[in-house]
Amino acid sequence: MRTLNQFLVVLLFDGVDLLDVTGPPEVFSLLQRETDAAAGYRVALAAETMAPVTTSAGVRVLPDITFAEAAAERIDTLMVPGSVEVDADRRVHALTDPGVVRWVATLAARSRRVASVCVGAHLLAAAGLLDGKRATTHWSTAQQLAVEHPAVDVDADPIFIRDGHVWTGAGVTACLDLSLALVAEDFGETTALRVARQLVMYLKRPSGQSQFSVPIEPVSTTRRMDDLRLHITHHLAEPLTVPDLARQLHLGERQLTRLFKTELGTTPAAYIEATRVEAARNQLETTDDTLERIATTCGFNTTDTLIRAFRRKLNTTPTEYRSRFRRSG
Questions:
Q1: In 3-state terms, the chain is what percent helix, strand and coil (to 5)?
Q2: Among the listed residues 296, 320, 323, the one whose alpha carbon sits nearest the alpha carbon of residue 310
Q3: Model-level pTM?
Q4: Is the model more confident about 15 or about 36?
């Protein structure tokens, strides 16, 4: 987990979608409020020059630094927003300025992690950063992305996708979901959940979304449910039976089941399994632990139970998941 301020660059160029630019910094600014120690991101808006940039909304934004100045630093996260034009038939087309594409390639080479917002995926693809990768973009330009870049595995369904060190987001408001996922990766799910609550957002993937999105955890509306969820997260290796959880909240078992249904829209068993799958997913991505150890520490007890849960929740196996999503370094 990271604790120091990280240099995060958001690209600016004429015609860029305004919320693509302003949404992520708003998420990141709340991180400082929700952490006890100095932590978070040092965000800079970078453009070709220091002149004001006119966004698609007509609002002018002042850059903090130039592309050249950004390229002189080591960038932790590069965020690439997009821009579109609409033709006479109201068809949406993503725009890719060659000069911006060249800077995307240059700055990406200086970055630990790259993330596109909405149709910014087209800029990443034009820079060759999505070749051989699974990626998403706004549904209205997904076909354009697939046609223009056949080497990219385009999936228009997820709100965002992470493939290695490259992240792609599906829409303007999905930039907030993607930003929360970056916070969760860097500072933990609990911190991201607190930021999500400040934004009155869900730290979750809606039903029917991609299998490799963020954990299926809606924000609960009561403190006691939040406390119980943290208890579950910190005691995954234990049995966590309904009677145990009911005693934790000083409730009857039927009351507990109703509370889960009302607050989280699920059952205690389904929620616990989803939380265990998410914990196992994180270990598969970030450690070399054996499947036996992961099964034990996450509360599955046996590898067979772990495998069945992954097939049920993610339609893959733990081994397949690790081979695709293992983070290096």
A1: 45, 15, 40
A2: 320
A3: 0.63
A4: 15
